[in-house]
Design brief:
Blueprint (H helix, E strand, L loop, with lengths): L1 H22 L11 H8 L3 H13 L3 E4 L3 E4 L10 H10 L3 H25 L2 H16 L4 H18 L3 H5 L1 H17 L8 H12 L3 H25 L9
Antiparallel strand pairs: 1-2
Helix pairs in contact: 1-3, 1-4, 4-9, 5-7, 5-10, 5-11, 6-7, 6-10, 7-9, 10-11
Length: about 240
């Protein structure tokens, strides 16, 4: 029980401090609060606070050394593949530039992952893809379910690839998709999930056709990039590339 409570407190501090660092409340140009002050601010022990600092250090936000103190790392050191860091960043400034960067990363990763899935996907992996595409078809008119089912589809393909590195990207993919799909919905007339385009990827994987799977995934992601470019052209200045 005590361990669970300590873990909850640690994650609460990680969430608060991580969001504050990424939002610019704390910055590399200013001293990071000392340990004693943070313990008082969050009403926690030094042990709990130090564990939170370790977690933020692993995310690339902080650097800490004994007898040298703790300081904030420049943004270039942040681990953008950490789902928490990406979420805090997108909460701070969701721009078309950020969405474009993410879509380009997906374009480099997901088509090859789909091709691998067509070669090596297990029965269980195919079942997960099939369940996700089924939910997408059922949820085309349902805002929340449509988002969840599309995320489940893309994550299932990454895992079905059998590549442990691709599979580990499912967390960051989920985080970024939540923001990018929400942004797309602001500029899209209706909430159709392009189920047929996703079905083509699934069918190619089920048929064991890596070429077709890769091409279908590439086409889908190129469409997403085109959408971002078109929306950027007509967006309000606050949503454009500059943060």
């Amino acid at each position: 029980m005590a361990r669970s409570e300590a873990s909850t407190r640690t994650h609460r501090i990680v969430e608060a401090l991580g969001g504050a660092i990424v939002s610019g409340t704390y910055s590399p140009q200013h001293p990071f609060p000392i340990e004693a002050d943070l313990c008082i601010q969050y009403s926690v022990s030094r042990t709990v606070l130090r564990e939170a600092v370790k977690m933020l250090t692993a995310k690339g936000l902080l650097s800490a050394r004994p007898r040298h103190g703790t300081w904030i790392q420049p943004e270039a050191h942040w681990n953008l593949l950490d789902p928490d860091v990406l979420r805090w960043l997108l909460e701070r400034k969701i721009t078309f530039s950020a969405l474009r960067d993410f879509a380009q990363m997906r374009l480099a990763i997901e088509p090859p992952a789909a091709a691998l899935a067509a070669r090596v996907a297990t029965a269980d992996a195919k079942a997960a893809i099939r369940a996700a595409i089924h939910e997408m078809a059922l949820a085309e008119e349902n805002e929340t379910d449509a988002l969840v089912s599309e995320i489940a589809f893309h994550s299932a393909i990454l895992r079905a690839s059998g590549n442990c590195f691709f599979a580990q990207l499912s967390g960051v993919t989920e985080t970024a998709l939540r923001f990018s799909l929400r942004m797309q919905d602001c500029y899209h007339d209706g909430r159709k999930r392009r189920t047929r385009d996703h079905q083509r990827i699934a069918d190619a994987i089920f048929a064991g056709d890596p070429v077709a799977a890769e091409e279908a995934a590439r086409l889908l992601l190129k469409q997403a990039l085109n959408f971002i470019d078109e929306a950027d052209d007509t967006a309000e200045p606050a949503l454009r590339n500059a943060s």
